[in-house]
């Protein structure tokens, strides 16, 4: 068992010691740019940035291939992540100041580890997986934005509301954080929120309407102040189109009321007229039924007729 642990520690040390001396990145990038400029000069074209064209991908340079290789090794390795890290940066070839000797906890022998973290601290997620739990991030949206077309504020109202909201957010900082000098109003009401609220000023009547148009995390805390500030401007900027619409709606409602009143009056008059008719023509004249031909040669059956009581009472 001790021999296996010793071999494992030796393998780790050998892995860390392997690796090439890293190239000078500044010189490599400068040479790469110079080569591209020379190619452009030979072709008679101005230096331009090359993009993917018609499915063809520009081949990677040696420096880019090296970066890609070590980046993939760092991600996929199941050993200590400091091994590809040290090989990429060439820590073996750097000053002895960066070398540290740490006693291996399992084997009890000393192994060279380059740029090791704080002594007795966790190394990486492969060496100490319990020290690096995988975080679970869940994005939860407490509300949904209102879909569809939204009414925009006129330019003069939008400018006025934006200036007012800038003053409001500075007042929030002064009132809630009087002794803080590094906080600004943009922390509590960002510029994007200010622009959205200024464009939809007429639609904001309470806090829930703010959440229908923007994701503002401080809406529940400072929403009432914002609504009050916006409502102060609406009296100075009346909505003419809305007033015309309200006038038309009021006229239509009045016409409906007049029609309903006339219908009710007519129904009452019909009842009175029917009662009077029944009283006047109370007696029915019993005559034999006969068929009469009309002008359009339609046959119509004539039934009994009513007799007027007024005429019956005449001498």
What does this structure look like?
The structure is a single chain. With 315 residues, this protein is mainly alpha-helical. The chain folds into 4 domains: 97 residues, no CATH class; 80 residues, DNA polymerase, domain 1 (Orthogonal Bundle), CATH 1.10.150; 41 residues; 35 residues, no CATH class. The protein contains 10 helices and 6 strands, in the order H-H-H-H-E-E-H-H-H-H-H-E-E-E-E-H. The strands form 3 sheets. A two-stranded antiparallel ribbon has the order 1-2. The chain has a two-stranded antiparallel sheet with strand order 3-6. Helix 5 crosses helix 6. The protein starts with a helix and ends with a helix. The N terminus is likely disordered.
